[in-house]
Amino acid sequence: MAEQKKLLRALAGETQAVPPIWMMRQAGRYLPEYRATRAQAGDFLSLCYNPELAAEVTLQPIRRYGFDAAILFADILLIPQALGADLWFETGEGPRLSTITTQADFDKLKGKDDIHDHLAPIYETVRLLTSALPSETALIGFAGAPWTVATYMIAGRGTPDQGPAHALREENTPLFEALLDLLTEATIEYLSCQIEAGAETVKLFDSWAGSLKGDAFAKYALEPARQIISALKARHPDVPIIAFPREAGDNYIGFAKATGADCVALDNSVSAEWAAEMVQVDGCVQGNLASRHMVTGGDALVEETRAIVRAFSGGPHIFNLGHGITPDADPENVQLMIDTVRETAS
Question: What does the alpha-carbon distance between residue 252 and residue 284 come to, in Å, rounded to a whole number?
Fold first, then answer.
């Protein structure tokens, strides 16, 4: 029964003796079985758009570790591609996109209702997972938040400071806001289709939210999240939503109430003790072990994991990392983390 799944119980506000555990990027290059499947697919995008193989890599960490949730294997940049942007990956360097910096560039993009043929393989992956996952394992869908996705579309790649997007925001605000509005609308449609295909919760990743300061954070991180969550709740009122405005700092405070999110995911730039006092008071939180511990392991991993579990033990909590696991992580350290969470909480 869905209501018995630990992740969904936490998202509903239940404080559990042992928190549910999953890990951002848990299907990834640190696992040898993932590397083998990716080689079979040929390249990263081919893996994303092959439902059988994408479902397989989603299931691999569940088989190995027994996480309480699986997260759909896809990428936040599939939406720009579905909207008509060119997308490719440079080996060792990451994603590249055709840029959106002028009105003419923007005018070439498709509308929010024209994305679904391109994204149909993603919905099929979700459908395959609904029958393949263990009955106790929740299925998470996801998308990138409009600001974060826009930073890639404007720069054509990831940047250290999201400078090109900030420049466009200041120099051509109408164009910048039109792009964010389109991404907001497309994200609503994309996540709604994931839910219809079987996702039991969805997560909104705003990886670069922390680079928005002051009123810009409220306008371009918080408000799009509120619009997306409001629209999804109107269509799917029983589906919980996780929001991750990474490195939001003090802007984590009140974010759940302001957006309607059922859970706020936390990065590791804030302490669990601070977040328990300032953020968890409003409901479920997720996080926030530093990803580096998955590389270094040892006593530091155990001690920090225990501290996080204890700090959040007074309210609903999903144990996770503060960001995605990195390719150089040791799979044995993941098992150590899981064992420590369960031993500390029991």
Answer: 12
DSSP 106-129: HHTSPPGGG-HHHHHHHHHHHHHH
DSSP conformation class of 142: E
Q: Cα 124 from chain centroid?
A: 19
Does pLDDT of 174 surpass 70?
Answer: yes
Which token pair is 307? 């501290």
Separation of alpha carbons 259 and 101, rounded Å: 29
Distance CA 58, CA 30 (A): 14
Contact 113, 183 (CB under 8 A): no
Q: Which residues are catalytic?
A: 25, 29, 38, 75, 152
| Model confidence band, residue 93 (pLDDT cutoffs 50, 70, 90) | confident
Strand 87-90 and strand 263-265: the pairing is unpaired
pTM: 0.97
On whether the CB atoms of residues 143 and 113 are closer than 8 A, the answer is no
Confidence label for 3 from pLDDT (cuts 50, 70 and 90) = low
In angstroms, the CA 290 to CA 305 distance is 9
Tens-digit pLDDT profile for residues 263-319: 999 999 999 999 999 999 999 999 999 999 999 999 999 999 999 999 999 999 999
CA–centroid distance for 181 within its chain: 20
Q: How far apart are CA 247 and CA 294, in angstroms?
A: 20
Q: Which residue has the tokens 């059922």?
A: 262
Give me the residue label for tokens 């209702």.
113
